[in-house]
Specification:
single chain, 3 domains, five-stranded mixed sheet, about 5% strand, Reverse transcriptase domain-containing protein, GrpII_Intron_Splice-Mob/Def, coiled coil
């Protein structure tokens, strides 16, 4: 009997092959450039592209640099997201779209025994790209865990493993290894610059300062390249003679593997073969995240059962129910840090119609909820944009002066705590600054810093004038000494010299004070942001 995993895998292949070229272009440009939702504020948009002029004259440019932003998932774990230069991004998209059938047939090879659920485009039942779900791929994975349970009744064990530092470990030459099928064939064809494998290799090197190690995290084209590389690993794994004979079901989400097997020995053998095939691509299994469980243990993430039991809220929410769910949420987060649970909780606070489920709370309770939610950002800074999107929806529904004054104070306090740190969290900074500018919230500390800057400027100008006058006085003093000395009227030269030294010392102190003023940095950390910020709520852009 065909497994549910296999059926869904090849159904997806069929739908992807039916997509029209213009729809693929539209998605990769308009939705794929900035990648995952809530990474960058929605102030920059791909407005248009010229399909007939995608390959701009970049041949004379040796390399480009990535634009990076550091995003913290916890206080200790971070991820670097990157933007690819538009010139190179356009060329990569062109190569992918023009070789779409070849790429899909490679990723969805008929002989695979590992079924990937992480291709970064979600298709509706009407064979159209689902723009909303394609931006929330992590939830597809959480759903995937439920789906694998449908096939689990025939098996007793589950092997769970993933790849260590996957995106940063992808070797650009391995794109060719995967598409050609092995290293030797890739090496033989390395001089064919017109071949897709070599073009993609060259473009990803060029995008990243000619580096061959690692591909940028974020853009959809990177996710497609990751699928190309791992499909090569999965194909080699599936073609192993012993693996062909074995009874198991395997699914993969990006670099995360799940295998349903009959015995612990089967799981150990599968892991051994998988490790061997990964190493051929300079990839390594993450030992810390590799486990074999006797089912039903391991079928779903440990936090999910506790979360679903204690933290799911309905639209008929009360303050006490929210408080209970919130307290359980913190307990679970401290028990299982760094999961997608907090993001899932924030999403659940907005219903399908785009309304915040606690928007009808009394003012003080509403303020209390916002303050409580803001404390969760310290557990996972990544959720800050979701908090701001909730606040924005509340602003649209509550026009009261008291609530709006609270929001102004809240944003100012948040901004203050960001910029007083020695190392400013740029991710938090750009989101809070964007929100303030969009909603015409005056950042008071910026105004104070401007005043302080003007005061320091005046102090500096005053000191410069004083130093100049001291210089004149010292010069006059020196001339007086020389004149008295030449006339033979200088009776106590030592006393005059001491006075002169005192003046020089005082001048040096003034110069030192001036240098201190020059060295003071006004830490306003301002960024210029385009004024044409869209009026659409953050939530509606990213939902």
């Amino acid at each position: 009997m065909e497994s549910n995993a296999k059926k869904e895998f090849f159904d997806k292949k069929s739908k992807l092959l039916k997509l029209e070229k213009k729809d693929i272009y539209n998605y990769l440009f308009y939705n794929g450039y900035y990648g995952e939702r809530y990474t960058y504020p929605p102030i920059f948009n791909v407005l248009k592209y010229n399909e007939n002029n995608l390959n701009s004259n970049t041949e004379n440019i040796d390399h480009y640099d990535l634009l990076n932003i550091e995003v913290r998932h916890t206080e200790t774990a971070k991820r670097i997201f990157s933007l690819i230069h538009p010139d190179i991004y356009c060329q990569i998209v062109d190569e992918i779209v023009n070789n779409w059938v070849k790429i899909i047939n490679h990723i969805y090879n008929d002989n695979l025994k590992v079924y990937s659920y992480s291709f970064p485009i979600t298709i509706t039942n009407k064979n159209k790209i689902d723009f909303k779900k394609s931006k929330t791929m992590i939830y597809n994975f959480l759903t995937l865990e439920e789906k694998i349970a449908y096939d689990s009744y025939n098996y007793k064990y589950i092997l769970i493993t993933d790849i260590s530092k996957f995106y940063h470990s992808i070797y650009t030459h391995s794109i060719a290894w995967a598409l050609y099928g092995d290293r030797e064939k890739a090496y033989e064809n390395r001089k064919d610059k017109s071949a897709l494998p070599n073009k993609l290799d060259m473009l990803f090197q060029k995008a990243n300062h000619k580096q061959t190690n690692g591909i940028p995290i974020g853009p959809v084209v990177s996710d497609i390249i990751a699928e190309i590389v791992l499909a090569g690993v999965d194909k080699s794994f599936s073609e192993n003679e012993e693996i062909k004979k074995m009874d198991f079901i395997s699914i993969r989400y990006k670099d995360d593997y799940r295998f349903l097997v009959n015995t612990k020995e089967d799981a150990e053998y599968i892991l051994e073969i998988l490790e061997r095939e990964l190493q051929k691509y300079n990839l390594w299994v993450n030992k810390e995240k590799t486990n074999i469980y006797k089912m039903p243990a391991g079928l779903e993430r440990k936090w999910k059962k506790e979360y679903n039991t204690n933290c799911v809220l309905s639209n008929k929410i009360t303050m006490s129910k929210f408080q209970d769910a919130y307290n359980y949420l913190i307990e679970i987060e401290e028990k299982y840090p760094g999961t997608a649970m907090l993001s899932k909780f924030f999403d659940s606070l907005i219903d399908k119609k785009g309304n915040v489920i606690f928007s009808k709370f009394a003012l003080m309770n509403k303020i209390k909820v916002i303050n409580l939610l803001s404390l969760l950002v310290d557990y996972s800074p990544r959720i800050l944009p979701q908090l701001l999107s909730i606040i924005e929806l509340l602003i649209l529904h509550d026009k009261s002066e008291e609530f709006n004054n609270f929001i102004k104070q809240f944003i100012n306090k948040m901004y203050y705590h960001i910029i007083i740190n020695k190392k400013v969290d740029i991710f938090r900074f750009i989101w809070v600054y964007y929100f303030a500018k969009k909603h015409n919230i005056i950042l008071e500390i910026n105004e104070e810093l401007n005043i302080k800057k003007e005061e320091l400027k005046k102090q500096k100008e005053g000191l410069e004038q004083t130093i100049k006058e001291f210089g004149k006085t010292i010069k006059e003093f020196e001339n007086t000494i020389k004149e008295l000395e030449s006339k033979g009227e200088l009776e106590n030269k030592k006393e005059f010299e001491n006075k002169k030294d005192e003046l020089i010392e005082l001048k040096e102190k003034l110069i030192e004070e001036k240098s201190k003023i020059n060295g003071r940095r006004i830490n306003s950390k301002r960024k210029r942001i385009r004024k044409n910020i869209k009026n659409r709520p953050i939530y509606t852009i990213y939902r």
